[in-house]
């Protein structure tokens, strides 16, 4: 079962050069998946549970600009034990300009841990064959200096942790790369950033690829991944 939604990109979602901020790229895809969840899921089964994102792979074929009219479509491609796998596609004028593979975990709010996805929920989504698959990643082990990053109150969401989309702002602090110059995003949310006034970012760059991670003062890893850059 697919869910689609159309948007016109407002100026307030764009950066100073008129391109959609990657923070809002994630937010718009989240909105479509949450709308679908509200339509197909049993409220009684889900009342003490919530979906949390584990990872993203996002291929941006063409950057999105302010005033662009786009259609975002999402659908489930598999559900296995604790994990739900989704595809997202974004179209402009009938052309697919963004493809994404996302992994969700189902989190029990009472037990405060991931749980197996109920059969009723898995069945409700009517999974489809994937259009875009997760890449195989090789990460580096050596990083540059630690960069201290302030956690802002506006980064915190209703779950009292740093919002998944807000990580794009944190990445901007250490990468110094413009939104429109990123053609691939991989991000793995290993641990929640919660009750932190600041975090440390590290990066390592190889040609058109930036590897990064966010850690605390004790070296605990919260998030890691890589960015692929356009030839600009």
Descriptive tags:
232 residues; eleven-stranded antiparallel beta sheet; single chain; alpha+beta; 41% strand
Structure, explained:
Strands 1, 2, 3, 4, 5, 6, 7, 8, 9, 10 and 11 form an eleven-stranded antiparallel β-sheet that branches. Helices cover 17% and strands 41% of the residues. The protein is built from four helices and eleven strands, in the order E-H-H-E-E-E-E-E-H-E-H-E-E-E-E. It is an alpha+beta fold and 232 residues long.
In short:
This protein is of the alpha+beta class and 232 residues long. Helix content is 17%, strand content 41%. It starts with a strand and ends with a strand.
Write the layout of secondary structure elements.
Layout: E1 2-8, H1 22-40, H2 43-46, E2 49-60, E3 69-80, E4 83-92, E5 95-108, E6 113-114, H3 119-125, E7 147-150, H4 167-175, E8 182-189, E9 198-206, E10 209-215, E11 221-229
Antiparallel strand pairs: 1-3, 2-5, 2-8, 3-4, 4-5, 5-6, 7-9, 8-11, 9-10, 10-11
The portion of residues assigned to helices is: 10-25%
* Amino- and carboxy-terminal Cα gap: 38 Å
Main sheet specs = 11 strands, antiparallel
Principal-axes shape call: globular
Number of strands: 11
Report the order of strands and helices.
EHHEEEEEHEHEEEE
Rg, Å, rounded = 18 Å
- Label the structural class: alpha+beta
Low-pLDDT regions: none
């Amino acid at each position: 079962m697919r869910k689609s939604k159309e948007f016109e990109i407002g100026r307030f979602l764009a950066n100073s050069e008129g391109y959609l901020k990657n923070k809002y790229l994630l937010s718009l895809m989240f909105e479509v998946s949450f709308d679908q969840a509200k339509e197909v899921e049993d409220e009684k089964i889900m009342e003490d549970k919530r979906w949390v994102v584990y990872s993203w792979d996002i291929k941006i074929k063409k950057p999105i600009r302010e005033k662009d009219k786009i259609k975002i479509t999402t659908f489930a491609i598999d559900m296995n034990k604790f994990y739900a796998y989704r595809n997202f596609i974004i179209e402009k004028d009938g052309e697919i300009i963004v493809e994404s593979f996302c992994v969700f975990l189902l989190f029990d709010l009472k037990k405060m841990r991931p749980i197996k996805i109920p059969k009723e929920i898995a069945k409700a989504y009517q999974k489809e064959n994937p259009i875009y698959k997760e890449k195989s990643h090789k990460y580096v082990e050596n990083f540059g200096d630690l960069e201290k990053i302030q956690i802002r109150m506006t980064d915190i969401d209703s779950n009292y942790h740093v919002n998944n989309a807000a990580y794009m702002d944190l990445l901007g602090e250490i990468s110094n790369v413009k939104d429109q110059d990123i053609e691939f995003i991989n991000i793995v949310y290993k641990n929640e950033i919660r009750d932190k006034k600041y975090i440390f970012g590290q990066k390592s760059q190889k040609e058109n690829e930036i590897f990064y991670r966010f850690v605390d003062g004790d070296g605990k890893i919260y998030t890691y991944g890589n960015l692929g850059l356009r030839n600009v």
